[in-house]
Design a protein that fits this description.
The chain is α+β, with helices and mostly antiparallel strands. It is built from two helices and three strands; from the N terminus they run H-E-E-E-H. It starts with a helix and ends with a helix.
């Protein structure tokens, strides 16, 4: 319980901030290719709504890809699915 209170106390000044102007929803993604020893690429994406992050993830891909381009396609597929859900 003390750990939870310490965490909440330390995070009390942090918040999502949104800008006054309407910028809409923007998505960014990247993948590191197959340079990992386990042959799974690490990919991630983030969605920004009016200057504040609303959805983000970074994780090891479930598929073993054979090239960096294929890893980028897998990352693009994941961000597209999230974008459809957010819309």
């Amino acid at each position: 319980m003390k750990r939870i209170y310490r965490y909440l106390f330390g995070m009390r000044k942090l918040a999502l901030t949104f800008r006054a102007g309407k910028q809409g929803l923007k998505g960014f993604t990247d993948a590191d290719g197959v340079s990992q020893e386990h042959r799974h690429a690490i990919s991630g994406y983030a969605y920004i709504l009016d200057g504040g992050a609303v959805s983000w993830v970074s994780k090891k891909q479930e598929l073993v890809t054979l090239s960096t381009m294929e890893a980028e396609y897998v990352a693009a597929m994941h961000i597209a699915k999230e974008g459809i859900w957010l819309r």
